Amino acid sequence: MIAPVVDAASLETWLHTGRPVTITDVRWYLDGRDGREAYETAHLPGAVWIDLDRDLAGHGLPATEGRHPLPTPADFAAAMAVAGIGDDTIVVAYDDTGGLTAGRLVVMLRMLGRDAAVLNGGLNTWVAEGRAIETGPGRAPTPATFTAAAWPSERLVSADETAAHAAAGGVVLDARAAERFTGEVTQIDPRPGHIPGARNAPWAAVLGADGRMLPTQELLAHYTQLGATVPEAAPIAYCGSGVSACMNAIAMEHAGLTPPRMYVASFSGWSADPAHAVETGPGGQVA
Fold it and tell me: Could you tell me which residue ranges the Rhodanese domain spans (predicted)?
């Protein structure tokens, strides 16, 4: 597979040499702003908009599955096909938040062995470097053939597996901002706090001030401090709903580490079950 992070210059080279690349705009906002509207205001030339809620999440499932459970393999394949993404397509995904939401599509595709990468710095870097943008509804993609495949069980964990791993001293990384991790701010989650034993690894910590991924040595130092670089740690990643946790997966792979297993239901699913204890504070009190 290609590397999980690609820079704008490399993307331009791929496009000019005729590689089968589909650029996807995966903007989505927790505060309710309209990602489609943002896309139509400005997007990379030829980019296809991907609706995270519609295309990258399942529907009609219990609250304990979280706000953004994985779609069925058939539904995901259908969404990709409609977006013009086929079995041999190279996908480069971007947003305007450093990969926060684009990473969800990239991780899903890479779990299936498909070539996909986050555009380093996203739309903001593309524009800052003087590259062209387009406005309006964008082109209608040519439908492609995307073969459905089961989500790999070795990359996913349940709530019980996450709890057992944390209880045994394993590394469980929570990608939410510190104030949501500690419980100071509840925002959209059913209850404040975090999964007992989890370690705070905010998604934004893997980005530099310019919105690009940190150099690999800095990423390694970051994950070493979290205890996530030793093989026996077998890290598990989660967040609020299985979206921002993908930033830790991409950053770890970019740094040469084994990607973490994903607890996709994340804290929205965990805290929806009253039988699950939660911790508050940086170390936490079980409640």
Answer: 17-135, 166-279
Q: Which of 8, 198, 239, 252 is catalytic?
A: 239
Q: What are the distances in angstroms from CA 232 to CA 114, 171, 257, 258?
A: 27, 9, 12, 11
Is the Cβ–Cβ distance between 235 and 171 less than 8 Å? Answer: yes
Question: What is the β-pairing status of strands 172-174 and 279-280?
Answer: unpaired
pTM of the full structure? 0.95
Q: For the stretch 36-56, what's the b/e string if a residue is b when 16 or more beta carbons lie within 10 angstroms of its beta carbon? A: eebbbeebbeebbbbbbeebb
At residue 284, does pLDDT exceed 70? no
Question: Which residues lie closer than 8 Å to 32 by C-beta, 6 or more apart?
Answer: none
**239 annotated active-site:** yes
pLDDT of 222 above 70: yes
Do 5-150 and 154-286 show the same overall fold?
A: yes
Strands (E), the chain: 5-6, 21-25, 48-49, 90-94, 116-119, 172-174, 199-200, 236-238, 261-262, 279-280, 285-286
pLDDT of residue 231 exceeding 80, the answer is no
pLDDT in tens, 66-104: 999 999 999 999 999 999 999 999 999 999 999 999 999
Share of the chain above pLDDT 70, in %: 98
| Three-class secondary structure of residue 118 per DSSP | strand
Q: Which CATH superfamily is domain 5-150 in?
A: Rhodanese-like domain (3.40.250.10)
What residues does each domain of the chain span? 5-150, 154-286
According to DSSP, the residues that pair with 22 across neighbouring strands are 91
The least confident of 40-44, 118-122, 167-171 is: 167-171
CATH superfamily, with its number, for domain 154-286:
Rhodanese-like domain (3.40.250.10)
Q: Is the pLDDT of residue 11 over 60?
A: yes
